[in-house]
Amino acid sequence: MAKEVQQTKFLKPGKIVIILQGRYAGRKAVIAKNFDDAANDKSFPHAVVVGIDQYPKSVTKSMSLTAMKRRSKLTVFIKSVNYQHMMPTRHTLDMDFKGLIADKTSEDATQKKEAKKAIKKKFEAKYLKGAVPFLW
């Protein structure tokens, strides 16, 4: 008799992954929403990921406050990525993106812009606390 192999789903929201293909190759990202079956006009399993496009620069004590603020800025990206084009890490991030990202966020420009602003604020708050060193 053939045994049914049960796949464990380890690509869950909050999992930190590394993007392997495309414009953001090599960047770390967090899974915000996953679609294990084909959905959203895509014929493959995919996930909506949120990541940091431009990381903050290093800051020293001798810098002025304005220079520190300028160097502490970061930019974020939202992208729908095929499971084949991401590599999971062992780390997770306990941030909730449910209210910020809708099903069509990666296609709708105005919705995407608002979501990026809100996500940027969350990431900057985490960065200023110094809570997530492995994401930077």
What attributes characterize this protein structure?
single chain; 136 residues; alpha+beta; SH3 type barrels; 5-stranded antiparallel beta sheet; 2 helices; 5 strands; 21% helix; elongated; ribonucleoprotein; Translation_prot_SH3-like_sf; Ribosomal_eL27_KOW; Ribosomal_eL27
**Overall pLDDT, averaged?**
83
Q: Give the fraction of residues assigned to helices.
A: 10-25%
How does CATH name the architecture?
Answer: Roll
Taken from the alpha-carbon principal axes, the silhouette is: elongated
The assigned structural class equals alpha+beta
Q: How many domains, in number, for the residues? A: 1
* Share of β-strand residues: 25-35%
Q: Regarding CATH, which class?
A: Mainly Beta
Unreliable segments of 5+ consecutive residues: none
Strand line-up across the major sheet = 4-3-2-1-5
Count of separate DSSP helical elements: 2
Kindly summarize this structure in a few lines.
21% of the residues lie in helices and 27% in strands. By secondary structure, the chain is of the alpha+beta class.
Could you please describe the fold and organization of this structure?
The structure is a single chain. The protein is 21% helix and 27% strand. With 136 residues, the chain is an alpha+beta fold. It has a single domain, classed as SH3 type barrels (Roll). The protein has a five-stranded antiparallel sheet, covered by helices on one side. A hairpin with an 8-residue loop joins strand 1 and strand 2. The longest helix is centred in the last third of the chain and has 21 residues, at 109-129. The protein is elongated and about 55 Å long. The N and C termini lie far apart (49 Å). The model has no long low-confidence stretch (mean pLDDT 83). One of its GO terms (molecular function) is structural constituent of ribosome. Keywords: Ribonucleoprotein, Ribosomal protein. InterPro entries: KOW (IPR005824), Ribosomal_eL27 (IPR001141), Ribosomal_eL27_KOW (IPR041991), Ribosomal_eL27_sf (IPR038655), Translation_prot_SH3-like_sf (IPR008991).
